Amino acid sequence: MDYFNQNHTLRKVKYLPQDFKMDDMEKVFGFPYVPYGPHFTDSHGFFYLKNSQSEGAVDIQGYDYLFGSMLPYGERSTDSTGSSGSTIDAKYDYQSSVVRVYSHGLLLYKKDLNPFVRELFDKHQPSEEEKSIPPEEMTLVEENEQVKVKFIFVHIMGQEDMTTGDVKLERAEFYLLIKMK
Questions:
Q1: Whether 105 and 173 share a structural domain
Q2: Are 176 and 160 spatial neighbours (Cβ–Cβ below 8 Å)?
Q3: Residue 13's domain spans which residues?
Q4: 3-state secondary structure 80-106
Q5: Beta-strand runs (E) in the chain
Q6: Which residues pair with residue 179 across a beta bridge?
Q7: Which pLDDT tens digit goes with each residue over 137-163?
Q8: pLDDT tens digit string along 87-141?
Q9: Are residues 31 and 115 in the same domain?
Q10: pLDDT at position 34, please?
């Protein structure tokens, strides 16, 4: 129930009453709802964005490394040794939505993904129903003196605080391509 409430909509659960809310758990099931992990209150609206071409091959031409963020929880960290012997490490902190890229322990790149998600949110005004976005809009390319990075987002899930208008990324699945300079 929590999964559908957070990631989709309770209307998709066929066996629930039409107007079911999580507060109705005890009345309908005989036991109270106890939230697990991050959850949304009435003042928070869930949204879900999906890359309209999320399946198929990922074009990595022009990049040296490919990382994925597809682990469910916690900080994602991956080490890779390239053909030149250089070691690169990409870390994604799910709590802060910050990605960091290191080489031999030195920070090369840092990105807070929340502003990118805010731009998508403002442009598409998503809701709890799945919204397909063209792949070029679900892609973020940046570079600095050390690296060029390309994020290809598959899914973006988050919440909007209805009282303040703040938008928070809750979960993102993406590929991170890195080109060393």
A1: yes
A2: no
A3: 1-39
A4: EECCCCCEEEEEEECCCCEEEEEECCE
A5: 44-51, 65-68, 75-81, 87-93, 98-103, 106-112, 131-133, 139-143, 147-161, 167-180
A6: 148
A7: 999 999 999 999 999 999 998 888 878
A8: 788 888 888 999 999 998 899 999 999 999 999 999 988 766 667 899 999 999 9
A9: no
A10: 67
Q: Which amino acid is at 35?
A: P
Q: What is the pLDDT of residues 6-45, one digit of tens each?
A: 667 777 788 888 888 888 888 888 887 765 544 444 446 7
Same domain, 66 and 84: yes
- The answer on 176 and 100 residing in a single domain is yes
Residue 131's pLDDT is 79
Helix, strand, coil: what percent of the chain each, to 5? 15, 40, 45
Number of folded domains in the chain? 2
